[in-house]
Queue: 2 jobs
Job 1
Amino acid sequence: MKTIAKSRLLLLAAAAALAACQSVPYTGRSHLVLVSAGEEKKMGEQAYAETLKKSKVSADQQKVSVVRQVGYRLAKAADKPDFQWEFNVIEDDKQINAWCLPGGKVAFYTGILPVTQDEDGIAVVMGHEIAHALARHGAERMSQGMLAQGVGTVAGAFLGGNPAGQKVFEQAYGLGVGVGIMLPYGRAQESEADHIGLIIMAKAGYDPNKALDFWQRMEKATGGKGGGPLDRYLSTHPINSDRQKAIRGWIPEAMQHYKPRN
Ligand SMILES: [Zn+2]
């Protein structure tokens, strides 16, 4: 009896895992996502509102308008009708950082703007960050955490507004401890965001070749160290020849989507 019950349970778990297996747009990689897109979006919107409340949202029209201009172009290319896109600049010159939460909630810190320099540079970062959201990397990380804790906690823990669910979300996105300080994604996720980001920027009319220039400036600006998702990744895996080679390798694919704007 016990063995039968156990194997039935295993079958159920396998079925649940199969149902939750999804494939990442553009790369086709299959990954396990145990959080519904709706719940993920709701948590993203809540975390965004809270972060903006605690931050100094920039009213510098020059900075804000260029970030929004690039943002809306890339949002259109990302083609996510269920996202309600929002783009804000947060005044903090020390943060060489940017992120995009589920639902299309984007923040750029003023500290990254001297490194992005122009619309092309903003498009590189924006593409990379939007790619994390499109590929549902945060939900993937949450799901890995949930699996580690036992799949049984899924049903209750992730209902929107549930403090326990919100906490896991904030940990996954690193928003809990200090505003805007994000935990690094995994190396494979960063690489995937580089790849998808190039396609999104190209679709939006930005030359993906500019990505190589940006990442070189980024390396100079951070000296291989820093405090954001982009540069923290660089600090552990500096923009070495491998990453540059990977980006170069994806550029021909991205160029197939490229139509210069104007
Ligand atoms: Zn990243």
Job 2
Amino acid sequence: MTGDKQNLNANVAHMGNKVFIELQQTMLRYRTGKVALSGVNLSIKQGQFIYLIGESGAGKSTLLRMTYGGIRPTSGQMSVQGTNMLLAKDAQIRTLRQRTGVIFQDHKLLFSRTVFENIALPLRVHGWKRERLVGRVRKVLQFVGLEDRLWSYPEALSGGEQQRIAIARAMIATPPVILADEPTGNLDDDTAAKVMNLLKALNEMGSTVITATHDMQLLDSHPGRVLRLHEGSLVEDSHASGE
Ligand SMILES: Nc1ncnc2c1ncn2[C@@H]1O[C@H](COP(=O)(O)OP(=O)(O)O)[C@@H](O)[C@H]1O
Ligand SMILES: [Mg+2]
């Protein structure tokens, strides 16, 4: 492991081999009455690389949303990074959210802000001084290969570059978990491979990575545990032991 990687990895190296996310008979019903997940039993250990697959509407985004605390389970059990997602106070959920890096298909960058501002946003809440912020942002931009874009605006970047900026933003606070929802959905094969290589590298540095995708080609290029959802149920787990 290089010095750079060790540095980027500082917050996650101590996490060890513990259970990271656990669901027991977990159910999620939206306000519309739609049951998007039901009877899900699942255990994910720190450091795993997970693919979440299944047809459109299977519940992939719902499970990711529950994992970063965007929505709470309706019933059953669910714990994420030691937080009970049914009983936690809103403040606890916010803390969890800050310890989670999220990447969306449409990256959700702010087009009125520079690359620097987009990436630094999560750290501003921690009260970092500007000089330290710039140094840290440069470092994550180096990691995604875009250090020369620090002061660019997102509209000047290609779709693949924008997605790499979103990865840099997701990793800025060294979260122990990275959740990616169809991160390669809008990208050509070469650019998708680049994005997956970055996610794999983050995993090798210690982060648990969960990627929702319906692109089965991705699974061939990078090995990982495969979880398949179908109509809200977990119907396949390539690694049922959780190792
Ligand atoms: N906010 C919502 N309100 C009501 N139903 C929703 C909402 N979000 C998703 N759903 C429904 O829940 C099911 C699972 O959706 P989703 O988790 O987005 O699936 P996937 O990401 O696998 O395509 C779908 O039937 C979808 O229409
Ligand atoms: Mg989805």
